[in-house]
Amino acid sequence: MLKSKARWKPKSSNDQAELILSKELQISPLLAKLLVTRGVTTVEDAKNFLYEEQMSFHDPFLLEGMDIAIDRVFQAIEENENILIFGDYDADGVSSTSVLFLTLKELEANVDFYIPNRFSEGYGPNKNAFKWAHEQNYSLIITVDTGISAANEVDFANELGIDVIITDHHEPPEELPKALAIIHPKLSPNYPFKELAGVGVVFKFASALLGREPEEYMELVSIGTVADLVPLVDENRLIVKKGVRQLKQTNRVGLKALLEISGVAQESISEETIGFAIGPRINAVGRLGDAKPAVDLVLETDRQVAKTLAEQIDVLNRERQELVTTMTEEAIKQVNSLDNTCSNKVIIVAKEGWNAGVVGIVASKLVDRFYKPVIVLSIDHEKGIAKGSARSIEGFSLFENLTKCKDILPHFGGHTLAAGMTLAIEDVEQLRQRLNEFADQTMTDEDFIPLKEVDLQCQVSEVSISFINELNMLSPFGMHNPKPVLQIQDVEITNLKQIGNEGSHLKVQLKESSMFLDAVGFGFGHVVNEIASGSKISCLGMASINEWNGKRKPQLMIQDLSVNHWQLFDFRGQEPHRLTLPSNEHQFVFLHQSKNEYLDLKNKYPISKFVSYESVHETMIDVQNEFVILLDLPGSEHDLRAVFQNGLSQRIYLVFNQDELHFFSPIPSRESFKKYYSILAKTNPFDMGMYEMALCRKMGWKKEQVDFMTKVFFDLEFVTIEDGKIRLLPQTEKKDLSQSSTYAIKLASIELERLFLYSKCDELTTFFQNMKSHFSENGEALI
């Protein structure tokens, strides 16, 4: 067996809905099934999901506070007031700031923007910034992608005589700011879609200001939408569809420079380009310093200046990557140290000097590694505070549980699976205790096993170029609309091999009848040594098209795999002390002859069991859930069957070390026995010391053969042996050679070696499989 890394959970289906969608829309049953698993169950909804011409944006004035905000902005423009956009330092905040700035400039407003410094000011509006705005004669502040938790700061602005309009999408707290207007989908009961990104809310605001949908900004809106990981459904889906298409032909010199420095060809842009190339670089600016250069790049019109800015941002991104690597390694050591002293269901790590700008990325990496909710904090002893980010797993809502701790969290905000916070250093341990108590009350052991949702179970033959092209009708992919995960169950494999540096990746062909499908698993190279010849594998993966030298082939990018049956590994011929087993963390069961100690293996695998064949009956060992290594050849087939008396183990590794080999020293023929008996009769007694070697030369026998025949005659009481002399005894009855224990043991040893040492692996697989079938027929335990 080979266990999967995650729990595989098939999504629910609806055969009737799938049939209707397939028939009415003329799409394949597989695509219809994928739509249903995404909650798209009616023909109308399916058309709106698949076909862009069927999609539309909702009326922006359905958002609460929109009319008040619009009136105030136009009043400010008419009266020549100064307007300040207060943004955030991530990609959503940068794109939000840019879109609103361009919109207000188009309306000829007196406008500028302000993005707080993550390190000196922290997240969200702050009184010092508002005080500065008052001194600079700004009378209207519009927040973008922030502000919903800034009740005290808005009160301060009101005291200064500054009107504040909040546009945000983060979880609203119980106490809302007393702003002139709050534009927030989740605070708008009449607005149909609640999951806009910050830039999506700004896009609605811009639409209301301009009296039209400003699609010229759509590539900027799509950047913030993808980068902020909001669900790519409803309006977000339409935003990204339009935005990605516009990004492919954008004339914004800043974005073109950023794409060029990222090594991305415009014609190949997809939502993944935003998620893995554009978004991280924009985020890197605010993570390591002031985010203003990111906005400057987006707004820049001079190509040379844009190129310089893009190069600077790329350098920052590389610094960010190096910083994340170092901090992650330090955090992992801290987690391991904590787990040695207590069991934490919620991980909280903290250290002075950690860069507060990348703690969120580090938290995500720790979630990937440990699959637990994680908070990573940067300690500032001078200010007495810990500032950080949190990432979670399904089953533990950060916003809900942090809200229960708000008495020790003066600043926090976020969503179910991601949050940010600031707290006093002395309260960190209390936060750890509380969150772990909450987790103990609500989470089960199963919650901490990664979960992989399966969109579609399919056959190798179904994964074709045409099928993959049809899958792309579901794009853009992202949160709540991920790339379809396919499950292929129990298929034969060929060409299993390791590829890449140090063999860290896997390449294999999945085989079904005469059909083959290439599959690649990044980071799965190690499983090559855990999949035995002849095994069938099950795997999860995403379908893609591999283009090489003008040829296009379907392939599966493996995300997880398993072998769901017992496996036989053939290590015969290898020296036992040179065995390479999957992991020394697993408890193996080594079977050996009692004369062999194998001290080197005991040192290498200290938690494993070493059991002699002789002691199997005494220990009553049950190996069904174990990996069994058969180090030595058993004394008999019966000894081997005793090992698996309750059922086969998950894996059987054949080594079958043997000092004395019988197979290549065959039993003398019956004619040889007759000739030897005749010689003994003529020379009775026969002096072995004097004549044995001469006998061997004359008859062409080996000494071992003569000694063997002598022992057989002795067993049968044909001879006596005294002082090296053999005397024949008078015979009263005939005896067959098989009545000799020496002869019988030799026969059995030869057959044992033939079966276990020299037969093909397929034959041994059949042998063990028949043993398993015997258990089944007799109602005995099975794996």
Query: Looking at the structure, what is the overall shape?
Result: elongated
* Quaternary: single chain
Counted beta strands:
26
Query: What structural class do helix, strand and pairing data support?
Result: alpha/beta
Strand order of the largest sheet: 3-2-4-5-6
Descriptors for this entry?
alpha/beta; five-stranded mixed sheet; elongated; 783 residues
Describe the protein.
By secondary structure, the protein is an alpha/beta fold. The protein has 26 helices and 26 strands. It has a five-stranded parallel sheet with strand order 3-2-4-5-6, with helices on both faces. The protein has a five-stranded mixed sheet with strand order 7-8-9-11-10. It has a five-stranded mixed barrel with strand order 14-15-16-18-17. It is elongated and about 135 Å long.
Structure summary:
Helix content is 40%, strand content 20%.
Q: Which helices and strands appear, and what pairs or packs with what?
A:
Layout: E1 7-10, H1 15-25, H2 29-37, H3 43-50, H4 66-78, E2 82-86, H5 91-106, E3 110-114, H6 127-135, E4 138-144, H7 151-160, E5 163-167, E6 181-183, H8 198-210, H9 218-227, H10 234-247, H11 253-261, H12 271-288, H13 292-299, H14 303-341, E7 347-352, H15 359-370, E8 374-380, E9 385-391, H16 398-403, E10 411-414, E11 418-424, H17 428-442, E12 451-454, E13 456-457, H18 465-471, E14 486-499, E15 505-512, E16 515-521, E17 536-548, E18 551-562, E19 567-570, E20 588-592, H19 599-604, E21 609-612, H20 616-619, E22 627-632, H21 637-643, E23 651-657, H22 670-682, E24 686-687, H23 688-699, H24 703-715, E25 719-722, E26 725-728, H25 741-756, H26 761-777
Parallel strand pairs: 1-12, 2-3, 2-4, 4-5, 5-6, 7-8, 13-14, 16-18, 19-23, 20-21, 20-22, 22-23
Antiparallel strand pairs: 8-9, 9-11, 10-11, 14-15, 14-17, 15-16, 17-18, 24-26, 25-26
Helix pairs in contact: 1-2, 5-8, 5-9, 5-13, 6-7, 8-9, 9-10, 9-12, 11-14, 12-14, 13-14, 14-15
